[in-house]
């Protein structure tokens, strides 16, 4: 199949529709569109009209593939390419494998690894928690209760519908209060 600009323009709606589903964050929208167009071009190269599948159906798979791969590769603070996740999988599966025996006890990788908590990390967590509590205290008591329950701050996290039920409010009202709280907190109250 020959690919020209007119062909891409005719099928650009596929990319826009799919990117809109994934692009909730405005600063990613252009990147998602770009990856979607790459997927569209790849679909056009590989499409075989004799299969009886419509091009739009075939292309949507390729567009989603490229957008998802982009999101996987760019969604973590420490970026690992999507293809390397399978490479590291055997390492995590071997964590329970016995390494050696010491005085009758079997030592495994899991016994050697720590959970990453140290005195420094505990102190940082305490400071962060205190800073969060200081910010929340600037909210009204009802707002504090809603935020604490939704995010599980000093309690178990609860879905917004359950918070509404517990507080005797409508779901929409809790949703509006939650949004208002987030705006206040982002501005530093």
Class by alpha and beta content: mainly alpha
Q: Rg to the nearest angstrom?
A: 25 Å
Largest sheet report: 2 strands, antiparallel
* Form type: flat
Strand order of the largest sheet: 1-2
- As a percent range, the share of strand residues is under 5%
Order of helices and strands: HHHHHEEHHHHH
Polypeptide structure, described:
There is one protein chain. With 189 residues, this protein is mainly alpha-helical. The protein has 10 helices and 2 strands; from the N terminus they run αααααββααααα. The chain has helices at 5-10, 12-22, 26-46, 55-74, 85-93, 109-112, 119-136, 141-151, 160-167, 171-186, and strands at 98-102, 105-108. The chain has a two-stranded antiparallel sheet with strand order 1-2. The model has no long low-confidence stretch (mean pLDDT 79).
Question: Which features characterize this protein?
Answer:
two-stranded antiparallel sheet; mainly alpha; 2 strands; 10 helices; 189 residues
